[in-house]
Records
---
Amino acid sequence: MAIRLDESGVLRCVEWERLEWLEHGFGTRRSEGWLPAESCADLVQVHGAGIVRAEAPGARFREGDALVASRAGLWIRVRTADCLPVLLADERRRAVAAVHCGWRGVRLELAAATVRRMGAEFGTVPSDVLAVIGPGIGACCFEVGPEVASEFQSTFPERDDLDRRTKLDLEEAVARQLAQAGVDEGRVARARLCTHCGAELFHSFRRDGTLGRMEAGIRVTECP
Ligand SMILES: [Zn+2]
């Protein structure tokens, strides 16, 4: 599956653009404020494992790092700058999810937990799930100390360097966890874009230390 940058500066999965019941995108520095704030549900993100079902816009007082929804017209959004935004869509049940995955969220296997939560909330079967892993800090730049690296031994059993300073591929980790949760590998799109390398398009907390964030969002469209 392919990702393209559209004329408004939003990254979109080409295959998903063909789904008439779904809208989605990953904002960049060229598309600040691309989501209609008054129609968005979001969270106070805390790098935890909290998953919230959204029924109405707003609710920023709620803490959590993943949203699930099926209400037509309601955008759910996460904000990132190096952390990975992950969007999920259940074609059969017409339900969606937005996940904020920093290294803590990856370690907590939040994307896989969100697939299971969609099962509990909407009856989602993992084989019906489509996923897009958006832009985040890449394996080229995400260097961590042994205290973080060693947390990922079960995710990367083939590696023997996680007891020292090294680099981690969080996108690959999320892809493996989605596969373990039952999502077909061929239904997972990966942006393969590093926010730390891509200063023109992306905010990067590690590079800039600023508060700039990109917004990723998804919604079930309203019936015409
Ligand atoms: Zn990089």
Note: The pocket of zinc ion is lined by residues 138, 140-141, 194, 196-197 (CB under 6 Å).
---
Amino acid sequence: MEHTLLTARLTRSEIISEKTKHLEFVVEELADFDFIPGQFVSVREPRGEKTITRAYSIASPPRGNNTFDLCLNRVDEGFMSNFLCDRAVGETARFHGPHGLFVLKPEVEDVVFVATGTGVAPFRSMAQRLFGRDGSGVDRHNGRKIWLVYGTRYAEDVYYQKEFEELAASEPDFHYTATLSRPSDDWKGGRGYVQEHLRQIVGERKDLHVYICGLNEMVNATRKLLVEELGWDKKRVIYERYD
Ligand SMILES: Cc1cc2nc3c(=O)[nH]c(=O)nc-3n(C[C@H](O)[C@H](O)[C@H](O)COP(=O)(O)OP(=O)(O)OC[C@H]3O[C@@H](n4cnc5c(N)ncnc54)[C@H](O)[C@@H]3O)c2cc1C
């Protein structure tokens, strides 16, 4: 199927860790770029004779205008991640979308978001939308409890930490744990892998939805814990794999 290609012009580029950038774009052809939190865009660029297409989760909520954000990790030797991270403000990239089914289910039930690395991007979009941090001020969380468990190796790689901590401080129904697999002695957050924290949050419960996003290894380990070890219905475990 031929997709309509759109032009994203970079308006802001911020380094958020050694290999990661927060990028903000405007879509030139549209007044309103609408999508559902959790969806991704497909960036397409020529490389020699070929055309390369890569998916990137939208890291912002729909704001009723033509903007969107990405959270981009440079992959060693990777083509598209470096192409995008090397864009200067004012330069463009071509993309199609939004695409994807990794979106919140309509049932009003408590949810746990589990992410590693840039897998936090769709959850930033969802959380901002649910708690009216999308410019609308409209609260859409309907009394659900929402946990975000975010895992990475080192403290420098906890993206959007301040934003999530502020959200948790002002919203009693939003709970945030950043956990490090290689913490320094002075780290005050969680320690160990995301699965250990998830296990504590769910306890004996099986009535939540768990959304998982990140690299395959973490996604598989988390699904295995819930479905095989704790006996969850696999329909309650929704995931997006980045590799
Ligand atoms: C639905 C979806 C959403 C995604 N959202 C994001 C996002 O928000 N932010 C983001 O940074 N990435 C995201 N990705 C990953 C992204 O699509 C690319 O796979 C990644 O940027 C690497 O592409 P590349 O062209 O730079 O590397 P390539 O040239 O494709 O790969 C170079 C080498 O890196 C390995 N590799 C490929 N992907 C990864 C990876 N993700 N991590 C580590 N090694 C890898 C390959 O095996 C290969 O050896 C998402 C992927 C999917 C499927």
Note: The chain has a mean pLDDT of 96.
---
Amino acid sequence: MNGKTHLTIGAVIGGIYGLVHAPAGELDTILFFAGIGGFSGLAADLDGPSVLTRKLTKVSRILHTSLIVVGLSSLLLLGWLTYTQASFRPDWLLAAFAASIVATLLGLLVSRGFWRNALVSLVGIMLAVYGFDQGWYWLIGLGAFVIIAPWLSHRGLTHTIWIVPIWGWIGFGLEQQLGIDGIGIASMLTYLSHIVADMFTPAGVKVLYPITKKKFKLKL
Ligand SMILES: [Zn+2]
């Protein structure tokens, strides 16, 4: 199952959840939940080496490399701005940080190898350090996930049902911080959508690993 499919499924489920959840169906709420869903729908495939790589076209490789370059350079620029101008803390800064981290991770999703894993972990370390600095435990949790995931074997621990409540806990922390109801549930549902979607592939998913290595499959 490729990244685009997971992203689409996650974003659609997230968007529908947002639509049901938004008091007056506000577009920004729907888009926000679609974003949460898309990210949660992709997160499980941060484990490497990704099977997605096989089908990479030249265009998508260029696209992903640009995402990494743009994401990492904006991270450096934003970090430098924050460091040198302590009084300069506009509201959009956090959103810009989040956007650059998502761009970097999206770009790294399809590459493979030691340096890819090291870069993903580096992004995780940045998240965890920032979370520690702010006392945001959910962000430390997300950072830990991003640090560890790339080093796990593909369709291993990140594709088990044990991770779903942990991912939900991260989402719930964000929910409490932003005061937006439903992020916890939405992130669990969309993370789960990834595992279920992978179960429709011939390889199946070891949903209960490490208790059993049985591969669970679904058929249409
Ligand atoms: Zn997967």
Note: The mean pLDDT is 89.
---
Amino acid sequence: MTSYTKIGTFLFLFTVLHITALGNTPITEVKRDTAIAQVVYGSDFLFDGMDSLSTKELYQYKDSLTYLNSPPKELINQLHIYLKIRTMDFNQIYATIDSLFELNTIPYPLINELNRYIANHQETLNNFETEIIDTSQYPADHYYHSWNTITPNPYGANYLTTPDSVIELQLIGTPRSPEFVMPVVDKLTSKYGWRSGRMHKGIDIDLQVWDTVVTAFSGMVRVARNYKGYGRVVVVRHFNGLETLYAHLHRIKVQPGQMVQAGELIGLGGSSGHSTGSHLHWEIRFKGHPINPLNLVDYQNHKLTHSTLVLRKTKHGFAGYPKGSIFYVVQNGDYLYKIASDYGTTVNKLCKLNDINRNSRLSVGQKLRII
Ligand SMILES: [Zn+2]
């Protein structure tokens, strides 16, 4: 009997919520008693004035929906997400919202509801974050001040702040970061850069499924999970300040928070996620900004070209190149714009320094002065 009553109650709720979720009923007024600024997309919320429902009630409601003759899958899904964020910190909720924007049909009522949750819980969430997460124990925290185990790249576009305009990172030769090891030794199948209209933010290295993949530098595993197009992916935060990402793995052999030494096994190669054929997609990033791995790795000899990396902020992001590189030796496929953007300079400056003009032909082996 009790369960019938329950279902009855929740059927009533369901009618109200379902209509709201479908976006057919405009909501007259958003509760603004908290007076916290909140972004609202359209006027629909998942719940109309029902944010006082307890977590237990929400679970009961969700359960009751699954017993209906034709369960409203979409709504159940959204309820599931809404319930899940109650155990998350700020960064994780924002990452969830970001991922909703990538769906084919963006669930604005749910996003509004999540934003309302954040607005209503601002204080508790903040406290939660400062109480529980002490990021100072993580590698290179002075650059990041955050530790996110959910999203491979949680850093916004403005993460590289002004004081960072020129940074030198000592990549190897320190007690905590003694060496570099190539993650996989095999053929390079795709370079960094624009590829059929999309930016390829790493390089692809050929491998066979089950081949071992090792971490390039020592550090701590930040992400080890299945994530969208990356498939099974591992991200390691290194003591030298960089983060490296290993995608399309067949098996993951580490977990977040685990310390790893350069050369230590992190997973087995595969082709999970959006991948054609087994390979390793390898990225090197600093504060979320991708760096061309071939700017620091001598691919033939599986070594770093220099132990110190210079990072220079540019108009469009930043450039990473080995310390002491004043001259650049032109390679097959190079063009002025590419060299200029790799080194954070402009075609004009390159032309002036080298007494050439922008239409000059470059020949392989030619030395160009960079700075
Ligand atoms: Zn790739």
Note: Helices lie at 2-22, 55-66, 73-84, 90-100, 108-132, 141-144, 336-342, 347-354.
